[in-house]
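Suppose you are handed a protein chain with no further information: no name, no annotation, nothing but its sequence. What can you learn? This example shows the usual starting point.
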Amino acid sequence: MKMWIALAGLTVMGCDSRTPEQSRNPQPVPTRPDDSAVPSPQPAEPAADPGHARPAPASASQLAGEAIARAQWKRARNHADCAPLALLSAAGADGTPRSASFAGGWAVAFDMPGLRSAYGFAGTAILDVDREDPAAQRRRLNAQWPLMRDLSALPQPAFAGYGLMGAEPYPPDNPEGQGMQSLAYVRIGGQTCTYNVWSHISRAHLEALLENLRVLH
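A reasonable first move is to predict its three-dimensional structure. Written in structure tokens, the prediction is:
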């Protein structure tokens, strides 16, 4: 799995570990349309969308996941406040994109041989906390997640809090998160929702995905 680190080639930023009260309780994201409670996010296995066939592979001019993201976003309840995203590059991964279900939102998951939902991104349902100003959002993510990163390629202010699923730090015996469930919560200027981005490949791969995110217009 060292190849993913070489492909990503990114420097880790903002490695302060945060442990305030509730720092291990990231913002919940609903995963089923009929949930009355709002469970923790589960990007590891986003549900396939049975009502829509997988689109044909994107043309060379499209970003990775673009066609599916646009189609999912158009019919999502949060489409007015959560613009679709796509990837300029998948950082060396060669997953097959598919639609996935996030209640109230939209998602694109990429499957690889032997690894379902190897990586992907989602625009989650709007929660009350999402409407706070950017400074408050930065404080919230900084308190929740062990790592923070500014994202200069996206509309500003754009930043991400990330770590292992559950807002846990990477363990000393696997600081690169090889084969573990890395997850980021992303805020993008001009958008209300908190985006999810995940990778089951490595920490470096997640960081590369964050740098390759682009807002679709």
